[in-house]
Amino acid sequence: MDESDLNDAFQARIDAEEKIEPGDWMPARYRQQLIRQISQHAHSEIIGMQPEGNWITRAPTLNRKCILLAKVQDEGGHGLYLYSSAETLGISRDEMVAALHTGAAKYASIFNYPTLTWADVGAIGWLVDGAAIVNQVSLQRTSYGPYARAMVRICKEESFHQRQGYHIMMVLAAGSVEQKQMAQDAVNRFWWPSLMMFGPHDADSAHSAQNMVWKIKRQTNDELRQKFVDQTVQQAEAIGLTLPDPDLKWNEARGRYDFGEIDWDEFQRSMTGGGPCSRQRLAHHREAHAEGEWVREASQAWAKKQKQRKEAVS
Ligand code: BYC
After folding, report:
1. What is the 3-state secondary structure (H, E, C) of the chain?
2. What CA–CA distances, in Å, run from 277 to 157, 179, 281, 283?
3. CA 224 to ligand 1: nearest atom
4. Which atom of ligand 1 is least distant from the CA of 108?
5. Of 106, 111, 101, 108, nearest to 287 (Cα)?
């Protein structure tokens, strides 16, 4: 088979909803796009541990602290599934981490915002995990098997994350005047960055068109963003919080909510290292990675020794 036949056969498998597995033939560009998206997704999970991790020692009750600890650990686990999934495409974890550190690989811009109050932990769970689930439910049907299977597990955990965040906001919104204000302030700061999580408008999205054909993406950035807005408006109303968008209103004809324009300059800034905490997030990751060097060395030495023992016995 020449390259063109291979491409046709590959697309036919995608069109028939077959999953592509690690040993299968795939176009080089398909492999590269998956490595880009999965590794950036993994980096987002790992960097995303920082803003919430910041509140573990300051959670208001032991119960809240235990829940937050579990959630942040889950995010670490999501990063690991995703790095493993990307490794099946022929890239090493070291290469992915190096790309994060040089800025060659991005991570979700939302994690460049600070968590100023306890309500921010609620807003992240409700809005950020809420936005992530909308995207990730769709990615459960992505065409690459190891990525799709990682998403199934991740979505189950994200649902719990979203509920814990919404519960924090529900309690604060029903609390004292100060608590309700704190919850509203968190929504005011996290609403627009949450909408940015879905990426640029479809017309400006560099990767969407081809990746929809390859079914790496199953729904476009704008479709997913609209879905998130539609489900979140009623959740906000139910707990008496206001989404900070004067243009947000029900459109009877479309059967969807209309909403205002995102500040795309802010999105660009935050995505390219100019967010309020961008430097801090990467510096912290670099430091933690360097501190963990001895652990990686020790585990590799142990694995090597085990292998030598096995070889000696056989
Ligand atoms: N932030 O052509 P486009 C979580 C980049 S974490 C930064 O539309 P694509 C959680 C994009 O990468 C869950 N960069 O791209 C963790 C591309 O740049 P490059 C995170 C963004 O890939 C802890 C360029 O803009 N979820 O749940 O087709 C605590 C052009 O965009 C962003 C995922 O990662 C952004 N918001 O679509 C709590 C989902 N948006 O690579 C919660 C997996 C766009 O050319 N990823 N860019 O340099 C995806 O679904 C897709 O990659 C995206 C973007 C929808 C994000």
Report:
1. CCHHHHHHHHHHHHHCCCCECCCCCCCHHHHHHHHHHHHHHHHHHHHCHHHHHCCHHHCCCHHHHHHHHHHHHHHHHHHHHHHHHHHCCCCCHHHHHHHHHHCCCCCCHHHHCCCCCHHHHHHHHHHHHHHHHHHHHHHCCCCEHHHHHHHHHHHHHHHHHHHHHHHHHHHHHCCCHHHHHHHHHHHHHHHHHHHHCCCCCHHHCCCHHHHHHCCCCCCCHHHHHHHHHHHHHHHHHHCCCCCCCCCCEEECCCCEEECCCCCHHHHHHHHHHHCCCHHHHHHHHHHHHHHCHHHHHHHHHHHHHHHHHHHHHC
2. 26, 25, 6, 10
3. 55
4. 1
5. 101
Token pair 């998206």: residue: 37
If you take atom 36 of ligand 1, which residue's CA is the nearest one?
A: 197
Structure token pair of residue 43: 């980096």
Nearest CA to ligand 1 atom 44: 199
Is residue 79 predicted with pLDDT exceeding 90? yes
**Residues of the chain above pLDDT 90, percent:** 99
Ligand 1, atom 29, lies closest to the CA of: 48
Residue nearest to atom 10 of ligand 1 (CA): 45
Using alpha carbons, select from 162, 167, 170 the residue that is nearest to residue 130: 162
Q: What residues line ligand 1, using a CB cutoff of 6 Å?
A: 36-37, 40-41, 44-45, 48, 75, 106, 108-109, 124, 128-129, 132, 135, 196-200, 205-208, 211, 217, 221, 271
Q: Using a pLDDT cut of 70, give the percent of the chain over it.
A: 100
- Whole-prediction pTM: 0.96
Atom of ligand 1 nearest to the CA of 206: 2
- Assess whether pLDDT exceeds 90 at residue 88: yes
Atom of ligand 1 nearest to the CA of 129: 42
